Amino acid sequence: MIDASIAALCFWLLGWGLAYGVDKGGFIGGCADGIFTGCQFATADIYNGAGAGGSDGWEGWFFQWAFTGACATIVAGSVAERTKIGAYFIYSVVLTTLIYPVVVHWGWGSGWLSAWGAYPDENGVARPMFNQDGTSNGLIDFAGSGIVHMVGGMSGLMGAIVVGPRTGRFDPETGAAAKLHDGNKTLQSLGVFILWFGWYGFNCGSTLAISGGAAIVAGKVAMTTTIAASVSCITATLLAKIFDGVFDVSMGLNGILAGLVSITANCSVVNPWHAVIIGAAGAIVLYIGHYVLLWLQIDDPCDACIIHGFCGLWGVWATGIFCTDANVQYAGYPNVNDACKRGEQFGVQVVGSLTIVAWVIVTAGLLFTCINASIGMRVPEEVEEDGLDHSEHGLAEYGGGKDITIADNKVHPLEEVADDEDEE
Fold first, then answer.
1. Count of CB atoms within 10 A of residue 264's CB?
2. Hey, which of 10, 101, 209, 387 would disulfide with 18, CB 3.0 to 4.6 Å?
3. Could you give the CA distance from residue 261 to residue 286 in angstroms, rounded to a whole number?
4. Is a pLDDT exceeding 70 seen at residue 419?
5. Which residues, 6+ apart, have CB-to-CB distance to 364 below 8 Å?
6. Stated pTM of the model
7. Where do the H-state alpha helices sit in 378-419?
8. Number of alpha carbons in the 13 Å side-chain half-sphere of residue 201
9. Residue 92 CB: number of other CB atoms within 10 A?
10. Residues near 103 by Cβ (< 8 Å), separated by ≥ 6?
11. Rounded CA separation 71/254 (Å)
12. How far, in Å, CA of 323 to CA of 319, rounded?
């Protein structure tokens, strides 16, 4: 709720202008007469009417705000159950104002990575990587495996490292991971299915149109998205059964998300059978990444940095591996070439993704370090033990069937339930 609200204000005040303003050296958006000269503040560049049959751009801001909020919320899963809410708010402001918009400008605006008019010269001619002409495409990230998910996931990784693991998560002597609690599988399932349903809005909606053949592309995107998510779910569940001995519900649910993230960059430029491979590989990245994090003693309660960060990285690379030049044209990308066939596209995807990772690790790492050194990232141990719902939000403590209390320590008037042993 607060993430979405912060994203709305920050992306309106400055983020949109930095993402979609006039290109400045391929790095950031600004105005024709400079970077911070006014036009990019509070979406001022949208205010001029487009005339009959045109678009002022309001819908573009709305759609991109949804991506901005989604990127910010990813970090919550990585730093859950021990992070000060105030520290998290500061991070959310900086990410939605600066860290994320810069990457958006690179890949979806007119920045140096963009497939949509990259880094234009003085005559407005685009210069996409690597050849800076029509024989290259620039970075293909159709709906944000790298630009959205990888930014949020790598930010979450840095947050989890700085804030440290939850109390009792790892044995101080052996380093072995302890299972703190399983959570509510029903609510987890509901959340994942809501995300899966909403993903069609992101992926199919990234055609940014419904006419002129865009609806056909959206239909294909819906198919590849569904296939990748389904295959990844099955693969993750089977991996858990083979290596852990159980059909792990949480691993299967995370497998759905891993498949969705993996297909998001390439959903429009690959064939359906490619989606099978991409989804299955995403599940493998998830499963291996889960145990690598435990081995490194990095505590990410939701595996958010694996699902969004590393599966996002895989999704960007998979675009270069499985894209076809015919599919790139079918998806409406502007340049006609054979960059996929020549292997150039894979190189662009690798360079672009690693640059995004470097930007996020440096900026988010510095941000979390500064927050930790100033107001602190972590709640006290007794507050963590008590539960952040109570300390940070003022909600009633959970008694597990015992007396239900509120913040002033008085008995709640609705107290009716006692333990069975008390009744006896």
1. 31
2. 101
3. 11
4. no
5. 91, 95, 99, 154, 155, 158, 159
6. 0.90
7. 381-386, 388-393
8. 11
9. 23
10. 146, 147, 151, 356, 359, 360
11. 17
12. 5
